[in-house]
Amino acid sequence: MTCLLMAAGGGHVRAAPAPANNTATPAVTANRDVSNLLSSATLWHSRHRNDLARAALEKALLVQPEQPEVLSLLGQIDIEENKPAEANKALQTLRARYPNAPATKALADVIRINTVDKSRIARARLLQRSGQADAAFAEYKALFPDGPPTGDLGVEYYRAQANATNGWPAAQQGLANLSKASPEDSRASQSLAELMIDRPSSRLAGTRMVADLAARPNADLNALLPLWQKGLSKADGNLAWLPLYQRYLALAPNDADIRAAYDKLNAQQAARTRMLNDPAYKSRQAGIKALDQGRLNDAEKSLDAARVKRPNDGELLGSLGLVKMRQGDHKGAQELFAQAVRKDPDNAGKWRSLLKTSQFWGAMSQARDARDAGRLDEADRLVRGALASDPNNPDGLALLGDIALDDKRDKDAERLFQQALKVEPDNDTALRGMITLYSRQQRRTELANLLGDLRRRFPRDLARFDKAEAAALSDDADRAIAEGHNGPALAALERAVVLDPGNAWTRYSLASLYRKLRLPQIGREVMAEGMRQPMEPDDRAQMLYAQAIYLNVIDDEAGARESLAQIPAANVTPSIKRMQTTLAIRDTARLAREAHAAGNDDESERRYGEALTMAGDDPELIGEVARARVSAGQPDQGLALMRDWLAAHADKPQPDAQLRYAELLSTAERDEELGTFLASMDPSTLGADQRDEWQDLQDRLALRQADRARALGDFDTAQRKLEPLLSRQPPDKRALSTLGDIYFDERRFDDARKIAEDQIRQDPTNQDARLSLVRVLYEQQDDEAANRELDRALAEASPDDVWTQLAAVRRLTAMERYDEAIALNDRLRTQFPDTSAVTVQRGRIAQSQRHYNEAKGWYDQARKEEIVQGALPGYDGMTSAESAIDSLESRRNTYVAAGYEIDQKKGDGGISMFNARAVPLYGQYAVGYDGHVFAQTDYVSADSGDLPLNGTSEFGTLPFLNVPSFRAANPGVQSDYGTKRQKAHGQALMLGYENDWIRADIGHTPVGFPISYVTGGVRLFGNLGRYNYWVDASRRPMTGSMVSYAGAYLPLPEVFGDGKWGGVRRDAITFHASRDFLKWGIFGEASVARLTGENVLNNSEVSARAGVDLPLIYKRDMRLNTGLTLFFDSFAQNERYYTYGHGGYYSPQTYVSLTLPLEWYGRTQRWSYYLRGSVSFSQSQEKAMPYFPTNGALQAASGDLTYGSGGGFGVGFSLTGRAEYWVNRHWVIGGQVQFERSDYYAPNRFLVYMRYHFDARRGDVPMPPSPVRPIWSY
């Protein structure tokens, strides 16, 4: 079955070697040696030993280098070992030499299914697992249009066909053909046998097939014996099964269940034969015989049948009364004994004595029931009434002592126990009462003396006294557990089980303690060991009952039902019957839930109706149905069931039912209603256990409210909710854990660490606390300690504790130990296949590895599991899988945005002044889950004001108007031509793609400007451990002025001729790295650039930036940061001027600045905001430059005009504010203002924008705001 499960689970698909046929190029027939090697390889391959299979195949190729079956199987192994190149090489060889051979087709199918059709086969398997058999088989048929494949693919195909409508006959024949074609490979035969066993009509034949497979020399008994056992466990009474039982037991002689079934079938055969051969068998004799043997139900049945024919038989009536009395039906027994007194006068004394005994034990039974229900006064009255007729009855005295013990009247209890022991020195109840009393009062010496004395006086009754000592040890364990001392309790219970191995409830206590210690499998083994003890029928029934309760507690309801089913009807007590009914209701409700999940609401309601019929008017059983509906995502219907019952029984208090309703409210997380309902109950009117349950509901409500407040970032409210639980002595452990989570979210890591370390110190086995410590240590960047503690948690976690191990998987994922996370998660998925949280986490691992499509597949599968399980939504209204899907879908952020920006920079009109208007239109489209393509176009209008057309304007060639030699050479030139408006407009373009690790774009500065050109860039993102970095290569425009951005035409072309200059582009390579520490972060950046333009002096730049970020406030909805940044910049040329040949951009030869920023951003329900201010201090130096640096002739003609050098110290500040408002989940509007001020630089920027998201955005408003920005700002 292993190979079948692998195929169903989505691993690499296997295909067995196909036999060769006649093709265009005849296949090489395997000779004897190669056939033997191929058979050996096939066998090892079927058992997943690819190393041994490969060795055999490589030997075969030495004999026959191009044998197709060998090449095909080698290619398949290469696929399984993730060597696609080698597999494709083998396929190319096969296609070249044997294009039509089945071996070629088999390998081609495997490669295709594991590559191009991987998602299709996954979809087919998902449909198969979700029960959509017909749709699944349709997918398989589409995958294999040329007919069914061979090998495991064929097995998988036919299994899907077998489950489809009317598909079984063809599937059965197909699997039979596969078995015949490859007799050395038993996988097809095994699968066929399994499918036959699942069908009653072919179960016997299927089991016989398994037996024949097991007889083969190389049979895999580990796979076959469980399948064989499955067939035998479903066998009917047909005697043809007997040989199969015998053959199985010859291989598995220690299988007690199968041996018991075999013995039962043999016994039935023998009994049937005896009955057929014994015509003198009579109902009365059978009844008396059954009574003597303790078979009370058989006795009752036979005697009732005989009573019909002999209604006046006093002996028969009295015997039937004995049956009733032993069954505990004392009232029925008393009626029959009274009739026997009248009908059998010769034995009237015997029947009167039995009538008196029945009356006594009837009163005792009623007293025990009253005592168990806590009605001690009523119990005391009933026992005293019974003792009136038998004052020295030791059992009555001992029970009266037990009642006094329960009522804390220790002196009365001790006196009554001693009276009972005087009458009967070895009375069990009295002895146990004395032992319990001594144990409670810690009278160790007297307890030891009592037991020693009893063992000396009654050496033949040592077992009884061992049981009594075991009971005392069990009481000690109960007290230790109540005080939180699990170690001593475990030792006491282990010793008690050794002393009294057949005591079901001591074993149950030990198993429950192991479960509490998160070792449920050991608890299961404790109960299973109990079933192997020699026991009387009643004790065995109690052991089965206790085992069923334990299995039910650990969520193995099927196992619990199986245990209860083994209890003979004669031993079924009302408690056992009630549990059987409870489990039957749960099973029926499960079928209803599954029908609802499958969309069959009519069937679902029918099943719920059946469950309610079984529940009757019992509030606890009705609560089971209600709980099922709440768990199925139908809380209103479930709550209504209990609400209606309470309304119908409002005439008297119903505290148990009220608590069941409160539990339902808690499960449905109707917290407001739950708080009101609990407040309406008066705890003083409740019993002790009821008060404990009421308080637990209050505590869980407080914990949930605290956790919800924590999730919303309201830490003050969260701590306030925890205060009542934390103020207890000792503090509530759950509240401490939640407080640790609050401290963690508040980034109070030292406080969170202290809580976790204290919890571990108190209980070193507390792996939840250890994993919390791992999280804190990792956040504190103590990676070595975090990994050490995580490794310890992994080593010490119980293999059966899914939730601790799943928490460990989350830590492994967060710490990027992905291989270990995947391995552990996959093991959990195998061990706990129906736990949707495990499947969700597998998706989160894939998402963390940026395998987004794979993650989506896991999340979808988990959601289907949640629907079947009836998972309820969390605080955010989504289930775990829905939240994961929403997180993944949030990566697909397709939207369009538009804005209007105004940029203003004061300066000399027509020269350094620069005002720009931009209308950016931006759109991005999600490409899968990996990234987005984006496009943007901006309409840009630039204006630098009116340029004075005279020689005083240092712009272009205008200074020549004041050069005497120029004026002399050009006598018609005027000294002043007025002014001219300097404007430009155009349309900028950009197209690009961005994902987690790259951003690339290509674009164009505004077409329509005097000078425009192609721009673009590529930025790569990555990390090395905790260091993040990016590398950027780009061409971007210099936008500081009209000349640098748009370029400019020479003024007065009639004087100076046509020409233009400017349009400076910066070609740069930049490296940026950063590292966040616990309370601060650092960053550094270095860049080299070349700046060029049209008719502009080439320039180069070297810059560096480094700084420290310091978070001051870190909250869920608000951040406040400061820091310090040091910046260095150096240009080779000083080109900040605007005459011809200069670039018009600030380019000091040395510039150093120190900036102190303060940044604040956050969000409310619909708003997000951002505010940043900074103060900077700078020192700069600029060298002198010629007016016309690119043209020596012009420079000479100007009389060698030169700009002087300069520099100095400066102080500046800046302020940026932006905000956006989410009108709804699609539309956003926002705005931004920005001011910068320094000695010679004072720009202003204003922006308004709007954005439309095509998919409604869920969750919190993002922060900080994300305004659209013009292309020039990238």
Automatic annotation (TrEMBL):
One example of a Gene Ontology biological process annotation: cellulose biosynthetic process
Pathway assigned to this chain's UniProt record: Glycan metabolism; bacterial cellulose biosynthesis
TPR repeats: 314-347, 394-427, 733-766
One GO CC term, this protein: outer membrane
Keyword set, alphabetical order: Cellulose biosynthesis, Repeat, Signal, TPR repeat
Protein's UniProt name: Cellulose synthase
InterPro entries assigned: BCSC_C (IPR008410), Cell_synth_C (IPR003921), CellSynth/LPSAsmb/PSIAsmb (IPR051012), TPR-like_helical_dom_sf (IPR011990), TPR_rpt (IPR019734)
Domain Cellulose synthase operon C C-terminal positions: 914-1255
Organism: Pandoraea anapnoica
